[in-house]
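User: two proteins, same treatment. go.

Assistant:
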Amino acid sequence: MSNLSKSMQTDDYKNEKHVPVIEAPQCAQKGKTFQVTIRVGKEIDHPNTTQHHISWISLFFLPEGEKFPIHIGDTIFAAHGSSAKGSDTSTVYTNHCCIMEFKTDKPGTLMTSSYCNIHGLWESSKELEIE
C-alpha cells in the first residue's frame, strides 16, 4: 500500500461528515450524459469556516478493464465565510456540493476525493453499470 493510499480516509470522523457521498444512477444509458452529485456532509453539514473547511472535491471514472482512471473534474471552494468585515464574520456559508455530468460507453467505478484543511484527504467510490 502506498503512502497516498494510507492517507486517504474512508470512515467518518467524530460527529462531522467528511466522506464525499456520490449520488448517481446505478445504471446509466450507454453514450447518454448523466449527472453525478457529490456532497460532503450529507447527513451532518461540514463546517465551512476560515479555520475548518473543505477545500476541494474531485471526480474520476475508472472504466471496467482499464488501468487508469479518467479525471472528470474538480470543484474548488475558495470562500470560507469571509466578508468585508473579516474572517468568519458572515452568516453565509457554502454547503460542499457539486454536480458534474459526463457520458461513457463502459461500466466502471466512480471515484471521488475531497480535502478538509484540518482532517486531510477523504475518498469514496460507487459502481456504475451501463445499459
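Protein 2:
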Amino acid sequence: MLLEVISGEDPRDQFSYLPSLHRDLDQIEPSNLRVAFAPTMGYGKVDAPVASVVRKAVSNLGIVFPNIEQIETVCDEAADIFITEFMAGCAARLGALAHSPDELDPVLRAGIERFRARPAQDIADALRYRYRIKEQIAALFQKYDVLITPTAPCVAWKAEEGVPPGHEHATAWSYFTYPFNLTGQPAGTLPCGLTADGMPVGLQIVAPLCREDRLLTVMKASETVISAGFGASIDPRP
C-alpha cells in the first residue's frame, strides 16, 4: 500500500519516471523463479548460529521455490565505497560537531576523522568503483530472478559495543545489505528463525532494479513458508 502511494510520476521530482506499482502481484508464479542463495556473498563472515538458521529457512523455501541454487559470489566487496559515502555524508552534515568528544558515538567520530584524513584521489577512486559493483550485480540478475542472503551476519549484541563481537576488523560488518544500498536493487528482510539462545535471525531477499512487484511476491510466499516452519521441521521436497 505504501509503495502504491509513493510510486509513479510527480512533477516535483525529476527522477520519478517509474510507473506506479499497480501490477497484480499474484500474476508472478514463485515456482518458476530462478533463485540464487549466497550464504556469504563471497566475502562475508557469518556467525555459525546465524548460518544454521538461514540454511534451514532456505531449505524450507524449496517448497515454493524449487529452483534454488547456491552460489559462492555475488560481487566484489564494496565496503570501502559504502564507508566512504556514508562518512562523507556524516562529515558534511555534522560539521564541527564531529570534533566533539561528548556529542558523538566514539566509533562514528573515529570514522569521520579517518575519512577527513584521506586524500581526495582515494575518495574519487572509491566512488568510481561503485559502477563496477553495479555491473556485477546486473550480470547476476541476468541469470537469476531473485537473490537470497542472510540479512545480518550476527544476532543483536550489547548496545554499549560499537560493532558486533568477532567483526571488529571488518571495514563494514553489514556485509549483505550495503551492496544494494549502493546499487539500488529493492530488498527486504524477513525474520526466519531463532538461534538456540532465542535470538532472531533475518533473511534478506533482493530483486532486480525496479522489480518491487517481484520482491513483494517472493516475500509474501516466503513469509508463509517460514512462519509455518518456526519451531517445526518442514520437508522441503516437492
